[in-house]
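Let us work through a complete example step by step.
Step 1: write down the sequence.
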Amino acid sequence: MRGKARTWGTPTTCTIIWKQGKWYTSITVNCEPKRETGSGAVGLDFGTYHAIACSDGTIIDNPKLLANTQQKIEQTSKKLRRKRAPNFKKKIKASKKWRKNRKQVSKLQNKVANQRQDWQHKVATQIVSSNSLVATEKLNIKGMTRKAKKGSKRKHQKTGLNRSLLDVGIGNLISLIKYKLNECSGVFVDVPLKTAPSQTCPNCGNKKKKELSQRVHNCENCNFVADRDVAAAMVMLNYAKGLGTSLSNADAEPLSKNPQHCGGFRKLQQLKRQKLYD
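Step 2: predict the structure and record it as tokens.
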């Protein structure tokens, strides 16, 4: 067994898997996972130019894991297409070289997936270790990575954008941050799209539409200058801080399973309803 579990407990299930020529075992245990965190708060802006831009100015670059291996995958896939593929209708069996090349393609794709998962876990841990409040824009990943419409002139550009978005794995990265915040009783805030973080100045709140080519935010109203993605992350953090005691309302997602915390959350909601209806 490689390494050791961060939080151990009573083992409940053990699943053994044969994958890519290796044996894996997955053990689930009944435990109360706990994680240490700081009292900081951060806004996050996800993208492809920068994987993550934080409100404190930290930039996490896109590792481009798939792009670095894409050429090898294409070359191996090309060899695979030249081999005799199986056809069950015509009762044609796959050739030995086809099976060999298929394993090579799967091995490369699996390696990229493992590298991405490892990177995502490390980044999520880095963020949660010092921040108990995380705010980010509520993104429709499924809609963002949808195929281009039939007959579209920018089909190739859209395909490249989708590949870049999926290479970062924004959806899975957000899920990892959420469950890690859950373990330390943190709060995750989904900032609605109507706030338009990338079009809003974090210093004065002035809104102006920007083109995608504009990578620097330069406010004409207050002369505030910052990286476009960092400025958007700052707007998200300002939105989360502006919620104040209403962090536990519909705009925020309370992640704590602590009964006392949940009780306080319910009491806060009750008081808010009373104020609204009174």
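Step 3: interpret the result. Residues 137 and 191 are 5 Å apart (CA to CA).
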